Prior knowledge:
Layout: E1 2-6, H1 10-16, H2 20-27, E2 32-36, E3 50-51, E4 61-62, H3 64-77, E5 84-93, H4 96-102, E6 107-112, H5 120-126, E7 129-132, H6 142-153, H7 170-173, E8 186-187, E9 190-191, H8 194-198, H9 201-219, H10 221-225, H11 231-252
Parallel strand pairs: 1-2, 1-6, 5-6, 5-7
Antiparallel strand pairs: 3-4, 8-9
Helix pairs in contact: 3-5, 9-11
The chain binds ligand 9D3.
Residues 87-89, 113, 116-117, 132-134, 136-141, 144 line the site of ligand 9D3.
Amino acid sequence: MDIQVVTLFPDMIQLGSGFGVCGRAIDRNLASVSSVNPRDFTTDVHRTVDDRPYGGGPGMVLKVEPFSRAIRAAKRALPAGGPVIFLSPQGRRFDQRIARELAELPGMVLVAGRYEGFDERLIEAECDDEMSLGDFVLSGGEVVALAMMDAVIRLLPGALGDETSAENDSFSDDLFDCPHYTRPEQVDGMAVPQVLLDGNHEEIRRWRLKQALGRTSVRRPDLLDRRQLTDEEERLLREYQTEQQSKQLQQVN
Ligand code: 9D3
């Protein structure tokens, strides 16, 4: 997959995408990440990319022409095409389902803004989709581009080792993880759950699924509402709830 990021801060993109699973996938040519800087498409001596808003008010608005030229250059540099996705607080919320859809594409252009945002006419002319990371205020779209690229690139075939690629199944995406433990067996008097030490793989599988279901139901019941539980899952979730109740009673007594 080829990703072009239109940004006034290309260093943020190049540095931020170079580590871990993402960096390795780029090194192995499973993905490429390049940047196009709208400032390089300005024609005035000051290389102006922003200007004061019509109608007045605080902040600056990103100018159409440097960005539309940069976006067209980014599209031309994409060998196989793909959507132009604007990153803005007004966009639809990015999630794992969208990450999976994007991972099927040959490429995409991500457009990161700064200041108060884009001139609306740029969005009308160039935007195929508008995406947000959620309801909080960032100072620009670059970290959103990095987050989206990380989520997408790790899904590309071969990006994760074979042993973890099962994680790509939609199955595991809508449940929280179970708790994890590693050596030593005791830390400051805190033990590892005995079932994980006994080596009964069927018991371990059931314990992990039970913990995942239980933690999801406590912290994010909305995730379970979207999910059809199997008979086993229903049973394990009820077991978790009974166990939590008896733990709480033990604490009271
Ligand atoms: C404080 C400025 N706000 C006026 C009430 C509007 C505003 C403009 C520009 C808020 C944030 C930004 C910059 N943010 C992004 O470019 C951005 C973003 C975000 O802030 N949160 C979540 N997802 C995204 S995607 C792009």
